[in-house]
Amino acid sequence: METALIILAAGKGTRMNSDLPKVLHRVASAPMLEHAMAAGAMLAPRHTVVVAGHGADQVRAAATLFDEDAQVVEQTEQLGTAHAVAQARPVLEGFEGMALVLYGDTPFVQPETLEKMQEALATHDVVVLGFEAADPARYGRLVMQGDALERIVEFKDAS
After folding, report:
1. Which domain holds residue 98?
2. Which CATH number goes with the domain that contains 83?
């Protein structure tokens, strides 16, 4: 089954005290966005869609420099993750494969992890990558029942 990558890259990065879009901050000699795109490219996606927001022109330039076939769409209002993903809908119209959503500010997800997620989609409707933090601090929560995802709770709504 063919894959489409949707890479979320619209964040401002206000905690970084910088005007540079968050995904363009360099880690290990490359923008975080490039690391996410490189990991996703290992899946040989049919489409790569980058959802830009803050500094969209800069994000578009970086994305297309790394992959000239990447399509960049703009999320003009930041209305949440689902809204950001929905911005890719017009570009993917008619596509009938699976969509894998990556965060452009999460640079060290390994291609092997993405391959396992892709394989898991053969037997699950939704696959979510999470982790157990020693200190959950300001992270949201994945509420699970065995290996089934019941819901995702944002930090502000978590007890």
Report:
1. 3-107
2. 3.90.550.10
What is the pTM assigned to this prediction? 0.88
Q: Tell me if 8 is assigned to some domain.
A: yes
Confidence of residue 122 (pLDDT cuts 50, 70, 90): confident
Q: Which residues are catalytic?
A: 15
Q: What is the 3-state secondary structure (H, E, C) of the chain?
A: CCEEEEEEECCCCHHHCCCCCHHHCEECCEEHHHHHHHHHHCCCCCEEEEEEECEHHHHHHHHHHHCCCCEEEECCCCCCHHHHHHCCCCCCCCCCCEEEEEECCCCCCCHHHHHHHHHHCCCCCCCCCCCCCCCCCCCCEEEEECCEEEEEECHHHCC
How many domains does the chain contain in total? 1
Q: Is the dihedral of CA 144, 37, 115, 101 positive or negative?
A: positive
Residue 39: pLDDT band (50, 70, 90) is very high
Residue 19 maps to a domain = yes
Which among 7, 86, 12 has a CA at the least distance from the CA of 50? Answer: 7
Model confidence at 81, in pLDDT bands (50, 70, 90)?
confident
CA distance 131 to 98: 23
